[in-house]
Amino acid sequence: MSNIYMPDLMEVVEVKQHTADVKSVKIKFKDPEKQAKFSFRVGQFGMYSLFGEGESTFNICSSSNWKDHIEFCFRKTGKVTDALWRVDEGDTIGFRGPYGNSYPMEAWEGKNLVFIGGGIAMPPIRCAIWYALENRAKYGDITIVYGARTPRDLVFTDELEKWAEYDRVRVIQCVDPGGETPEWKGEVGLIPNVLAAANVPAGNTAALVIGPPIMIKFTLPVLDRMGVLAPDIYTSLENRMKCGVGKCGRCNCGPVYVCKEGPIFTMEQLNALPADF
Amino acid sequence: MSETITQQALRALVDEWIGAGTKVAGPSYVKKDLCQYVPLTSSAELLLEGFIHPRNSVKDFFFPRHEKIYEYTLKGHEVELADMTPASTPQVIVAARPCDTAAVAILDAVFNWGEKDEFYTQRREAATIVALACVTHDSHCFCTSVGIGPDAEKGADVMLLPLDGGFEVRCLTEKGKTLFAGRTQPSDKTAVIPEGPKVKVSPEQVRAALEDYDNPLWKTATLRCLSCGACSFTCPTCHCFDIVDEGNAHGGCRAKNWDSCQLCMFTKHASGHNPRNVQGQRQRQRTQHKFRIYPDKFGEVLCTGCGNCARNCPVSLGILGTLVELCAEMPKTVGESK
Amino acid sequence: MIEEIRQTCRTLLEAGTVNVVIAYGQSNPDGPVHPIFVTKPDDVEKIVWNKQCFANLTTYLTRKEVKSLGKAAILVKGCDARSLVVLVQESQVERSDVHVIGLACEGVGEPELAGKCRVCEVHMPVGVDVTIGSTEAAAPEGQNRYALVDEFMKKSPEERMAFWKQEFERCVRCYACRGVCPLCYCNQCIVDKNRPVVIDTSATLKGNFAWNITRAFHLAGRCVSCGECTRVCPAGIDLRMLNASLAQSAEKHFNYRAGMDPETPPVIGTYNAEDKENFIR
Question: What gap in Å lies between CA B134 and CA B196, rounded to an integer?
Answer without folding.
Answer: 8
